[in-house]
Amino acid sequence: MENYYVHKLTDNKGDHEVHVEGCNKMTVSENFKNLGQFSNCRADVAEAKKNYNQVNGCFYCCNECHTQ
Ligand SMILES: [Zn+2]
């Protein structure tokens, strides 16, 4: 299980990116909301979509869930 976070702000495509704790793209911690522990990024993205319409996995830490 990994601890997942979602960015409260959108990137330049309007996506809220999800990250695994410790990802070096998570620079300003106050901009991230902890979603809890999940066994994979797909479960995390599903949870994040309850809060945000447009969610994407981080290219670096959630590459399996990253879409263009
Ligand atoms: Zn990341």
Note the quaternary state here. Answer: single chain
Evaluate the radius of gyration: 10 Å
Helicity, as a percent range: 10-25%
Structural class: mainly beta
State the distance separating the first and last CA atoms: 26 Å
Number of strands: 4
Q: Work out the helix count.
A: 1
Features:
mainly beta, 68 residues, 4 strands, single chain, binds zinc ion, four-stranded mixed β-sheet
Task: Report a brief summary of the structure.
This protein has 68 residues and is mostly beta strands. It has one domain.
What would you note in describing this structure?
The mean pLDDT is 95. The protein is mainly β and 68 residues long. It has one domain. Helices cover 12% and strands 31% of the residues. A 4-stranded mixed β-sheet has the order 3-1-2-4, covered by helices on one side. It contains 1 helix and 4 strands. It binds zinc ion. Zinc ion (ZN) binds next to loops.
List the topology elements.
Elements: E1 2-7, E2 16-20, E3 32-38, H1 41-48, E4 55-57
Parallel strand pairs: 2-4
Antiparallel strand pairs: 1-2, 1-3
This protein binds zinc ion (ZN).
